[in-house]
Specification:
Blueprint lengths: L2 H19 L8 H15 L4 E2 L2 E2 L4 E6 L6 H7 L4 H10 L14 E6 L7 E9 L2 E6 L6 E5 L2 E11 L4 H7 L5 H9 L14 E11 L2 E15 L2 E10 L2 E5 L19 E4 L2 E5 L6 E4 L2 E4 L5 E3 L4 E9 L4 E7 L4 E11 L8 E2 L4 E5 L9 E8 L2 E3 L17 H16 L2
Length: 414
């Protein structure tokens, strides 16, 4: 090779080396680009969790418990042995009673994505707020999970045309809010005697789980206009307990409830001469009949002692009598059954469930015949006097006044 050719060759080789050294990184081989794309896609992939379990990792079979279907039937259908189910039932003791699995509740069965799937988890939705996780692997652990709860601020206002229940429906509010109001104002307003054009305004929070609203409420403040009078309800913490007071700081709770059950219809009132629907004669009816579905809980309107419990085939059917003090006795008749543990001599608290609506005895349909005796004489239950409980204490009045003014101002603004 001549000297001239050596110089040209050396120059070309130098240029090639420089190009290789300073070559931009975007010229990386195609194989490296593929690897980067794969890593990026894995980093972006979203992992979805339910019950604290990554759904991406498993095959999930959702279902609903059928009527009379037990845990063993469900799990054995998914391939578990009777021995495995028995062990799970043993492991669940003290955590969840598997006998309480009931029809209509949802469940989810998790298994691996292998060619031969292996069971991993069974999750039973016990109620809207909680679920039970059964680990189907060797450890067989059983745990309770809780959904995060959110309290959503809400407000509603409206007028009564036929009933408070229907008024709530017309306002696109949960009608069970009507029951909540009847409980709060139960000592001051007769919700079985509401009048057309009665008005209400309510500030409240409604419980929500996973975007599903539950019929559970926390009343922030309310006003009910009934018979040309405005009744306020202000929740206030006193002595470690939240009670409702009116705008003057007086308790809304009294010694006696206005009614012994929640928000149903009066079908017959107190009368000295009422046409009896079964006997077809006129005779005194010294009580108030509340029409309600069979099984509706019946409350004691006040604290007292059960002095009579029995059955009258041609009269009140299953009945209870409660002595509240030296003046008043109340009677609850036509019950379908008594609450467990209720007997003569039992001490009952105000609004404690004592029985359930029925049609036992001489009755044409399910209802509660409620009677009140004052010094041994029957009186109209709708006119019973009830002394309120303790008012806001003097040392708490300043704090209550600030809260009251704020809530009443908010109620007037919408």
């Amino acid at each position: 090779m001549t000297k001239k050719k050596q110089i040209i060759f050396s120059s070309l080789l130098g240029i090639i080396l420089l190009l290789v050294i300073f070559m931009p990184k975007r010229w990386t081989p195609v194989e490296s680009l593929d690897e980067v794309d794969i890593v990026d896609s894995l980093e972006v992939q979203k992992i979805v969790y339910k019950y604290g379990i990554p759904l991406n990792d498993y095959e999930v079979d959702y279902g609903v418990v059928k009527r009379n279907q037990s845990l063993s039937v469900i799990l054995e259908t998914h391939g578990l042995t009777g021995r495995q189910v028995h062990q799970l039932a043993q492991n669940s003791k003290g955590v969840f009673d598997v006998r309480k699995i009931r029809g209509g509740q949802s469940y989810a069965f998790f298994s691996t994505k292998d060619s031969i799937p292996e069971p991993v988890y069974f999750v039973y939705e016990a109620d809207p707020r909680s679920y039970v996780v059964f680990d189907l692997r060797e450890n067989g652990k059983v745990t309770i999970g809780k959904y995060p709860v959110e309290w959503v601020p809400k407000s509603v206002k409206g007028k009564v045309e036929s009933s408070l229940w229907n008024a709530m429906v017309s306002c696109n509010a949960d009608p069970l809010l009507a029951v909540e109001l009847s409980r709060i104002f139960g000592w001051t307003i007769d919700f079985f005697g509401l009048q057309k054009e009665d008005e209400f305004r309510v500030l409240y929070k409604q419980e929500s789980v996973e975007g599903q609203e539950l019929s559970n409420f926390s009343i922030v403040g309310a006003v009910f206009v009934h018979a040309d009078s405005a009744y306020y309800a202000i929740p206030f913490l006193q002595d470690g307990e939240v009670l409702f007071f009116n705008e003057h700081g007086k308790s809304l709770e009294g010694a006696f409830l206005k009614a012994p059950l929640d928000f149903f219809r009066i079908s017959s009132r107190f009368s000295n001469s009422r046409y009896h629907p079964v006997l077809k004669i006129y005779r005194a009816h010294h009580g108030v009949d509340y029409a309600a579905p069979v099984g509706t809980p019946v409350y004691a309107i006040g604290a007292g002692t059960v002095i009579a419990k029995g059955y009258q085939a041609k009269g009140g059917g299953n009945y209870l009598k409660i002595k509240h003090n030296g003046t008043y006795v109340t009677c609850y008749m036509h019950l379908s059954r008594f609450e467990k543990g209720i007997k003569v001599g039992s001490k009952v608290a105000q609004k404690e469930v004592i029985g359930y609506v029925g049609s036992t005895g001489l009755a044409t349909g399910p209802h509660l015949d409620f009677r009140v005796y004052e010094n041994g004489k029957p009186i109209n239950p709708l006119t019973i006097k009830s002394q309120p409980k303790s008012p806001v204490k003097p040392e708490n009045l300043a704090r209550f006044t600030i809260l009251k003014d704020t809530i009443i101002g908010q109620l007037r603004q919408f």
